[in-house]
Amino acid sequence: MAQDFIANLDPYNGGIDKYENGKRRMYVILSPEEVAAGRTTRWTELDIQNKGIKNFSPYLWSLRHLTALYLNNNKISRLPAEVSNLQNLKHLDLSNNKLRSLPVELGDMLKLQDLLLSNNSIRLLPYELGRLFQLNRLELDGNPLTPELLQKAREVNGTQKLLQFLLDTLEAPDTPPKRPWVTIRERTGKHMTFTVMCYNILSETLATRTKYGYCPSTALSWDTRKTLIMREILDNKADIIALQEVETEKYTTLFLRELSQHGYAGVFQPKSRAKTVTEEERKHVDGCAIFYNKSKFTLHKDKYIDYSQLAIANSEGADDMINRVQTKDNIGIACCFDIKDTSNASKHQKLIILNTHINWDPEYSDVKLIQNIMFMSEVDAFVQGIKGGYSLPIVVCGDFNSTPDSAVIEFLLKSQISTEHSDFHGLKYHGFLKKANGECLGNKNGTKHFKHNFKLKSCYSEEQLQDLKYTNYTYDFKGILDHILHSKENLRTLGVLGGIDVEWMEANKIIGCPNVHYPSDHFPLVSELELINATR
Predict the structure, then answer these.
(1) pLDDT (tens digit, 9 = 90+) per residue, 52-73?
(2) Which residues are catalytically annotated?
(3) Is the dihedral of CA 383, 385, 388, 389 positive or negative?
């Protein structure tokens, strides 16, 4: 097939008009003058069937805009590895050819939805095909495959069963390099230090095949994951452990049981729906937990923060509080701890630890922001009821489902956010916010802001966040959603746990977690903090 023929097809200028499965496909050959004039093609499907083709022009594999490629009914005996260059391909028809094998690189074409391979001479399937988790149709009839493979393919949901078999058989990658510890400053030796971990563990109920189809069965198995999660927690030896997505039953039967043997006690609150479901369903409702080292801390006071209930309580005159905020089942916990050893605790004898899990949906940025405003408002009331109040050191942990440049993090770090911020989507929350937050602040331009009364900074500097790169790693999203913040005036960061080895992830084609080495779709954050003498 001539390279010029491939390069100069155009479906928008009249020409061959074809229909298949109700879809219109049209191709036109551009004239040399049109090509020389810089005219480009915009077609996304290419039909080269029934041409007697044996080989391809290398140019074919540069057509990265293609979403469908029809090569059926030819004489193709070999499919080159370069086919994987077509990363946007969703439909690939190679049926009725003379293929004897398939390149392992075919497993890199993650957008494939239809792969038609009927009536070839294929004896083996590369295990890498199991990575094609979006594949809905895999046709294999008419190939001399093993009876086991053909039987799986012919069963109900055969494509998914076969892909899962191939993925589970694929050899697991070697152990990744250990995450580095990044020292920011040395201990003074004069003040108390402690370490904090923040970790969304991914609940068993949420770790489904539907959501994580790219994961081997072993990686999704709770029996495997719970062992790796506990190892991750215990290896880091944090004094404070803030966890999200801990299921109610597993808090008692796994986390509290195991961690109590290592000197920890805990506080747990499930999401509010635990009050409305059956006893059996309640076991699987997840929530937030805070574990603390009993040799360093004693629980003084705690508070459960239920955003759904707060939305109901503050919905008067604000319908969106019911329509948007109340429907999101997210929570937070505030704990005040007495510091046991005050010899190196500066003048502070108490420590505030916060843990929250904010709504995940990017379409509900207003809800994320409202939840955080409610969170800090409730924390304000909590702190005011404790001796020392705003002068107490505070650490904020959570899966905020918000990137470092988001309005949520801006609000936490700058202590205020404009009432006109685009993340509110122009919705009328003003009445609630004024009630929850007190008076609005005005600036010289007359713009009003919502505020909180804490001065916070991230344990990870901008440079360290760039090195960290990810705290959440899925096929659909990779970025930083989890954060540890602390009060500026009485705490400072001594060190943080660095990021995962990105080169290892890419070399092993890890398109998302969990996997056999990382048991959650989140990576834990760990920071060492030191109390200092400053007060408000």
Answers:
(1) 999 988 989 999 999 999 999 9
(2) 399
(3) positive
